[in-house]
Amino acid sequence: NPYAGLVSHLRAAWLSGKTRPMEYRVAQLEALGRFLDEKKQEILEATELDMGKPSFEAFFSEILLCKNELNVTLNNLCHWMKDEHVDKNLVMQLDSAFIRKDPYGVVLIIAPWNYPIHLFMVPLIGAIAAGNCAIIKPSEISKNTERLVAETLSCYLDSDCFAVVTGGVPETTSLLENKFDYIFFTGSPPVGRIVMTAAAKHLTPVTLELGGKNPCYVSDTCDVNNVARRVAWGRFFNAGQTCIAPDYLLCTVEMQDKLMPALREAITEFFGPNPRESPDFGRIVSDKQFRRIRALLSSGRVALGGQTDEAERYIGAPTVLADVQPSDPAMQEEIFGPVLPIVTIANMDEAIDFINARPRPLALYAFSCDSKVVNQVLERTSSGGFCGNDTLMHVTLTSLPFGGIGNSGLGKYHGKFTFDTFSHHRGCLHRNMGLETLNAPRYPPYTQQKLGILTATFEVKRRGTCTLL
Amino acid sequence: MERMQQIVGRARAAFNSGRSRPLEFRIQQLKALERMVQEKEQEILAALKADLNKSGPNAYSHEIMGVLRELALTTEKLPSWAAPQPVKKNLLTMRDEAYIGYEPLGVVLVIGAWNYPFVLVMQPLIGAIAAGNAVVVKPSEVSENTARLVAELLPQYLDKDLYPVVTGGVPETTDLLAQRFDHILYTGNTAVGKIVMAAAAKHLTPVTLELGGKSPCYIDKDCDLAVACRRITWGKYMNCGQTCIAPDYILCDPSIQSKVVENIKETLKEFYGEDVKSSPDYERIVNKRHFKRILSLLEGQKIAHGGETDEASCFIAPTILTDVSPESKVMEEEIFGPVLPIVTVKSVEEAIEFINLREKPLALYVFSNNKQLIKRVISETSSGGVTGYDVIMHFFLSTLPFGGVGHSGMGAYHGKHSFETFSHRRACLIKDLKMESTNKMRYPPGSQKKV
């Protein structure tokens, strides 16, 4: 077990209690802020090398959103750490009852390659805020960012309590043999199963942020141009390599015809006449992913884009496939690329049935000028999160929980939810040492009379009933 | 296997029909459960007596009262719990609707335990119904009378397809666990907890595991020993020690060990009389296998009180062991019986170290007049829950989440925590299709100005 030594080292630091005081946590969090500020250029360069991430996007997702989470956490940490006092029943009026937020101990954060800083940083912020030690395992696929994190993060964080482990599948498998007190995994459902199975051996609780095919329903009554822009933005951000990207569109044949020119216009507006030359359009992260996505292009008919260049791992212009059938390749797996299939349906009911026949997605989108339509789709489906009339934006609001359901994941985070994810909520009752006579009814010998007293004092009365004394 | 597929399939079809979702339906089912508990009280008490030799008032206060309380609370609060929760918005979302919606997960599996066989099936069931789910109930086969009764009663009061009861042992449970559920709540032991979680992992099913462990009880020199020992005696020997949050063992200074023993002995006389075996309030060990297991823990131990047993009736007298060695068998596994080992420690630091060297327990107890000491023990240890200066009681406050940590479990329930455990909190952001100009900042082409 090559990592046993490292895990013990962190566990010893954890047992020493040094991560618990608020001042310590604040100092580590502020150090993360400095990392984001001082290494900004390196981060933009590494992510560009890894997947041609446009620096505008990299700044937004890898720096700005992370700093937001950092600031929300630093602004509220004191309040979040406090014992949460709870309502008491009659018997416990003189007692102290509260929920204590205990750190778990040594946690493991496994991050994917598509937002390689953000997806370890935001969980790490919550893990540190909650008082844990952490091992960070960045993805080996975004290798430039992996190297950057492995080489520089330790300069900012306390190396007794935080470590970065690099490597691929064999290394991750070895790492997972160790006992952790919490595991936070972002990645694909099949690997999510492997992580949870490994966690089960140690009864380690987990949060799994997975994925799936996020449906995007566009009703006939909508502002076509706005829809096209918002959908195109969400789909082609990071060259489609986003877990919450709108994966496929559901609309009527008429709407498909109207959307096509609008999508073409939006794409041109965003990326110019030759997206290959636009600094704002990314590339596919690896040859394997590129080939996988290319194979999906034989679905429906290519209405926009569709060219590929293996050397550059370029798929573009941003591609839209029309008249895609449910049995086509593009509808069999999460696309995770700059390809938007359109599946036509007759009406909203058919769209809802289509969505409900498939695994529950991480995100679900519905566009309509008619708010009743948006609400219908929301109410009659299930998904991790939902955004009406836009894409992606629900995850930028830190007061909303971010997580999946069913195949798209379990658990949630962002903002206070990250802090709560990495804390054990410990129910504490601090009773009075006196007043022992009040306890008498609970002790044997048991009698009907004692039972009567217990019932009277312990009972929750339904509203609308009253006891006449 | 086919039978399980059919049962779960029917529950899923019933859930997909949507009928478990409206609040009126859920409240109606909860009210039916309430009627069931009230109308069948005698049958329930009889089953508990047959399974664990629990006396009427005892069984009522530990199993029925809690259920009625939970039903009343849940039916009253459900509308407010289920209401969408608006959240704080930022500048970009100021004009939008942003809220967290509470939605059912789907088909939930509740696996009960034998020690409090009625309440440990009912309390999760109440939360799961309240959250709008279909629920497959699997009571423990070890408490067979209660299992049989639950299987008979639930279909008489509740929707048969949405809330089926599955009875059986390990093979049936294994078949059940191969099916896909949307949440599993399991109450039982650590070893089976791992099996449940591994099965759940195949379907990426979230789990709540209410397990166990050795719940430590630290008695400080500075405390009212008479009161402390009375409360400890109550919590330790109720249900013949077969309580997941019973104080498993005592840690105290050697100088007070004999006083502790004396006080507990006094209290035992007060509770159960001179002849414990003939007290109607003292339970029995659930079966021979557990009887033999607990008996073997007594080997080589210094018995300061008790130790009498009768295999035919699975009777084990309330027993106290003194000067117990930390390495002995009785200190290795959760006792789950009326045997109370006392391990001596010279200081609270030693006690804290002792506790932290072991797996995190479900409950932790500390008795001291010194509030600071109690606070210190809580802060320097970890456990599912804590009661200071008493035992068990944190279980009875439903505003406190009840659950374990580490080997004692994951997740929590009771009261609103049950509702949240069995719900999906769905993030919802509803924007306007107009106001496109505010979006222009985020679209390519990128520029420093936009940044």
Automatic annotation (TrEMBL), chain A:
GO biological process, one term: aldehyde metabolic process
The entry's keywords: NAD, Oxidoreductase
Oxidoreductase recorded as keyword: yes
Active site as annotated: E209, C243
KW Oxidoreductase (keyword) present: yes
SUPFAM superfamilies, sorted: ALDH-like (SSF53720)
GO MF term set: 3-chloroallyl aldehyde dehydrogenase activity; aldehyde dehydrogenase (NAD+) activity
CDD domains (UniProt xref): ALDH_F3AB
InterPro entries, alphabetized: Ald_DH/histidinol_DH, Ald_DH_C, Ald_DH_CS_CYS, Ald_DH_CS_GLU, Ald_DH_N, Aldehyde_DH_dom, Aldehyde_DH_NAD(P)
GO cellular component, one term: cytoplasm
Domain Aldehyde dehydrogenase: residue ranges: 18-423
Family: Belongs to the aldehyde dehydrogenase family.
PANTHER family: ALDEHYDE DEHYDROGENASE (PTHR43570), ALDEHYDE DEHYDROGENASE FAMILY 3 MEMBER B1 (PTHR43570:SF2)
Name this polypeptide is given: AL3B1 dehydrogenase
Species of provenance: Erpornis zantholeuca
TrEMBL record, chain B:
EC number: 1.2.1.3, 1.2.1.94
GO molecular function: 3-chloroallyl aldehyde dehydrogenase activity; farnesal dehydrogenase (NAD+) activity
Catalytic activity: 22-oxodocosanoate + NAD(+) + H2O = docosanedioate + NADH + 2 H(+); octanal + NAD(+) + H2O = octanoate + NADH + 2 H(+); decanal + NAD(+) + H2O = decanoate + NADH + 2 H(+); a fatty aldehyde + NAD(+) + H2O = a fatty acid + NADH + 2 H(+)
Key words of the record: Coiled coil, Endoplasmic reticulum, Fatty acid metabolism, Lipid metabolism, Membrane, Microsome, NAD, Oxidoreductase, Phosphoprotein, Transmembrane, Transmembrane helix
GO cellular component: endoplasmic reticulum membrane
Coiled-coil residue spans: 23-50
Major localization listed first in the record, in broad terms: endoplasmic reticulum
BP-aspect Gene Ontology terms: aldehyde metabolic process; fatty acid metabolic process
Compartment(s) of residence: Endoplasmic reticulum membrane; Microsome membrane
Domain of life: Eukaryota
Residues annotated as domain Aldehyde dehydrogenase: 3-425
Enzyme class, broadest EC rank: oxidoreductase
Membrane topology: Single-pass membrane protein
Active site per UniProt: E210, C244
Family membership: Belongs to the aldehyde dehydrogenase family.
Subunit structure: Homodimer.
Protein name listed in UniProt: Aldehyde dehydrogenase family 3 member A2
Annotated organism of origin: Erpornis zantholeuca
Organism ancestry: Eukaryota, Metazoa, Chordata, Craniata, Vertebrata
